[in-house]
Design a protein that fits this description.
The structure is a homodimer. The first copy, chain A, has about 500 residues and is mainly alpha-helical. Chain A is about 65% helix and about 5% strand. Chain A folds into 2 domains: about 90 residues; about 375 residues, Neurolysin, domain 3. In chain A, strand 2 and strand 3 form a beta hairpin. The interface between A and B is medium-sized, with 31 and 31 residues.
Chain lengths: ~500, ~500
């Protein structure tokens, strides 16, 4: 057999295992009975072992060596070879014993973090976190890097991402967004949202609203599902079977809808993948930053626009006629756009969100380089919140212990959230040039022109290009914070007349 | 490594794959989005291939050869070796090409049967059925048999089952049950069930009733689920994760409850398996006949008893206060026990059900031996219905085309349904000797003494014994139709004063 087709055969096998594992994971989060947890762990461990065997098979290495010598490969073939090489290197460079020790440590660490957060006591998590940082350093050394150890960790979540690419993006944000936030805070004006907080919002109405909005955006429910889970996510085995979840609170009706729009963004991306590249790495959705751009696009850029609020107001009124009495589109828009520095990242507004990420990014760099000791971390965290957001955490649970990521060993992950925000603004800004009627379309609930644009420029391009190349191809410029900063400045000006 | 432990390692791997496949199948039936069907087929085919590779690995054959020489194996070890041998022989005796051709034919055949049934035209299915019979004969020849080809097919679904064991069971039934049915029919008395048919039964009430009854019987919902599906079944990956389904009709409230009790019987059996034998063949539930005995026990022997109706009447009244006004326990009991010859097996009462099976069993024997040609099958079918049940199908959809089994190549499967009925009566009759307060317990909703008896005598025994041996160990006698015939005669006497 031709080496390329032999490689594709192995990759298809690996993809099948990923599909099955994805269903096992979805089921576990959404509806598995509680006593099934232990054996579900065994099933997932079994399929992970089987998949690891294929991923590290010496035959893959031989085929890649052979294919990398070939000069006759087209774009897609080259992308498959490049992506298979990245995956093979990542899988083979970490010694089996290291991977198994790391997995054990992460399980332990997740438990001590949960305990520490519950008891509001950083010292419970301290030792495990210190060890996680050691593990992360070792991992970076196994994976290899050019400039900084931290680069190797960033590269895990977005191929090709480095500190030298990220620093300018965050600097642009810091210089432009921090003053905006300060000026809003100084104005001290707060819209009246008593109609939100003083009402109760029944779940069935929220469910129907989520469903209707997701359908309108273009999520295909014949090829996917909506469910509820404690931690909302978008999963599912393949583009014909995309499953997203949300959660409901009777005191906050925005959480479920904007969560649904976020996951709908991830979901439409998965459903829009190039189907002629099924089972191939080049046919997969691109890195985490691009994925997050699609979720943030619908959640924020579209979902929190005045035009969207104008379109969705009648839907709100249909589901909650009493609560919404007298509420106008502009009231809804102000309520979903409250800019207010707060301690908790996942509750942050669009303006402050990236400052939360920037703080984590700066801290991770310092921890990995050794310029910050774990014992000094809580104070450093609180100081940075005070410096950049003007508020200081009063306890570690709403401070340094708030995020699950470090307890899972995910160091280098946070920046992809901000990349998503920047990419989403940059993509929408480019799309607007092709769609002069964009605002009117959103006001009329016609989301298909924008979705079609994303399908063509982003979804159908799979992982053929590297993330930064994809952004440049789609928008005409390399990744930059400009579009996002401009978008935010405009919005704050409109909201607060600044 | 010791050969026995090496074998157990391979068997655990195979079991893991069965667990995963079972979840894939459950999801497919219960909630998978429609467009996902094709790739779900690929996932299932992939895991089936992986599993087949292990099941037919020459190493398994070598280990079995070695272990079969050993004289130091205990009961459980011997059972594992015996069961692994049966599975190995069944997997290796069928040539790969034959298996693949058969799978292709079965897919085709399922389509032509569906078409034939919809159009009420046997000729559409005729050629595929003839081919299925050829395939079944070849399969029997590959698998091997002592007396009759049909024995090899029976053995697939219940190990050790043969015509020489089944004929006397069916003869006992035919001689004793057919006259009972005739005498009921001659009496021409029909209880008044207008309170059932003239009311509408809302689904939420049926759901709560199903849930409450299943919980009361002892199904553990922390280790399992109840859902809805078009074809009710009991599945799920393992004893900690047992998932059963039912279906609801607003015109027939009994279908969902008695379906739920049936699946609860299967489900409690799975939950009661011996957990120290996890992943081992000896720890699995025994053959299909024993499995069916547990479902029929709760559905019929318990569920259709007067005592159960006395206990459940207040639950019915709680969910359906208006519909149940003036209905007494005896009315409920008569309604769920209507004895009436009908054309459709799945709707048949306890008395006529086994006659439906007997007709299929006799026909299968004739088809496999070649004593009945496929062209003569529809007339033969109708003649037998007229002879044994006194009614003649007016079209093939409610006659020879009603069951899906032959279209799937499942020839030799039907008798396990009747075995289940016979075993359930024989087991309950033995349990009654140990449980003198049985009737009062059922009347009081105390199902745990009976469930505990089944746990100890049946569930915890896994597949350590062969099915017929298990029945003999649990009841003191080999399988026989006596208990069932006596049970039925008693019931008909009480119901119709015959």
């Amino acid at each position: 057999m031709d080496a390329y087709n032999e490689l594709l055969g192995i990759l298809k096998d690996i993809d099948m295992m990923d599909q099955v594992r994805s269903l096992l994971g979805w089921d576990q989060e959404v509806l598995m009975p509680p006593k099934a947890a232990e054996l579900r762990g065994e099933q997932i461990a079994w399929i992970s072992r089987e998949s690891h065997k294929r991923k590290t098979s010496p035959r893959v290495g031989e085929l890649l060596d052979e294919l990398e010598e070939r000069v006759d490969l087209g774009d897609i073939e080259s992308a498959n070879v490049r992506l298979a090489r990245e995956a093979y290197d990542k899988a083979t460079r970490l010694p089996t014993e290291f991977v198994s020790e790391l997995a054990k440590h992460n399980s332990k660490s997740l438990i001590s973090w949960t305990e520490a957060r519950k008891n509001n006591d950083f010292s419970i998590f301290r030792d495990d976190l210190a060890k996680s940082i050691d593990f992360a350093r070792k991992k970076a050394d196994y994976l290899g890097y050019e400039d900084l150890r931290y680069d190797a960790l960033l590269d895990i979540y977005e191929s090709g991402l480095t500190v030298s690419r990220l620093d300018p993006l965050f600097e642009g944000l810091r210089n432009k967004v921090a003053p905006l936030i300060r000026s809003v805070a100084e104005r001290g004006e707060r819209p009246d949202i008593s109609w939100v907080t003083e009402n109760s919002w029944e779940q069935p109405g929220q469910e129907r609203l989520s469903q209707k909005v997701s359908e309108s955006i273009g999520f295909d429910f014949e090829a996917g599902r909506r469910d509820a889970s404690t931690h909302p996510f978008c999963g599912g085995p393949n583009p014909d079977d995309v499953r997203w979840t949300t959660r409901y609170s009777e005191t906050d009706p925005f959480g479920s809808l904007y969560g649904s729009m976020h996951e709908t963004g991830h979901g439409t991306y998965e459903q829009g993948r190039p189907r002629d590249l099924d089972f191939q790495p080049a046919g997969k959705a691109n890195g985490l930053g691009i994925h997050e751009s699609q979720s943030r696009l619908w959640e924020n850029q579209i979902g929190r626009s005045l035009e969207f609020c104008q379109w969705s107001l009648p839907l709100w009124k249909e589901q909650f006629p009493e609560n919404m009495q007298g509420v106008e589109a502009e009231d809804l828009w102000r309520a979903v756009n409250l800019v207010e520095p707060s301690l908790i990242r996942v509750e942050a507004d669009e303006a402050t969100y990236n400052i939360h990420i920037m703080i984590r990014y700066e801290i991770e760099k310092l921890l990995i380089s050794g310029d910050l000791e774990v014992d000094d971390l809580p104070d450093k965290w609180d100081d940075m919140y005070e410096e950049y957001l003007g508020i200081r955490p009063t306890d570690s649970s709403s401070g340094v212990l708030q995020d699950i990521h470090w307890s899972m060993g995910a160091i280098g992950y946070f920046p992809t959230y901000t990349l998503g925000n920047l990419y989403s603004a940059q993509l929408l800004s480019a799309a607007r040039e092709d769609l002069p009627e964009h605002d009117a379309q959103i006001r009329g609930g016609d989301f298909s022109p924008l979705l079609d644009w994303m399908r063509k420029k982003v979804h159908k391009r799979g992982s053929i290009l590297k993330p930064a190349e994809l952004i440049e191809e789609a928008t005409g410029s390399p990744p930059s914070p400009e579009a996002f900063v401009e978008y935010l400045a405009n919005k704050v000006r409109l909201l607060y007349s600044i």
